[in-house]
Amino acid sequence: MNYNNTVEQGKTAAIVSYFTIIGTVIAIFMNSEHKNSFASFHIRQTLGLFLTFFALGYLVGYLNSWAATSAFYLFFFVLWVFGFLGAVQGEMKVVPLIGQYFQKWFKNI
What we know:
Elements: H1 3-16, H2 20-30, H3 37-60, H4 66-89, H5 99-105
Helix pairs in contact: 1-2, 1-3, 2-3, 3-4, 3-5
């Protein structure tokens, strides 16, 4: 199977994975029977983004600073957009700063 077929077959699951944590779980099930490397790549990225967002967001919420909270939300929104556009365009680019870790940590997905 060539790269273009892999992208086209996994694109739907990759895009679905970016729509909330529920979308990520749905994409994991969509990709479970016939593993697609493109979909798996983006599922790992989104799972990492959402889990990191929830873990750090809990801590940032206690800072009680609108500047820190706003910067946090903006930072993760930019990362989300970067990953989502990559999925839509059929590219496998890791999310800046932290995406490479998600590929290692969730390699079994």
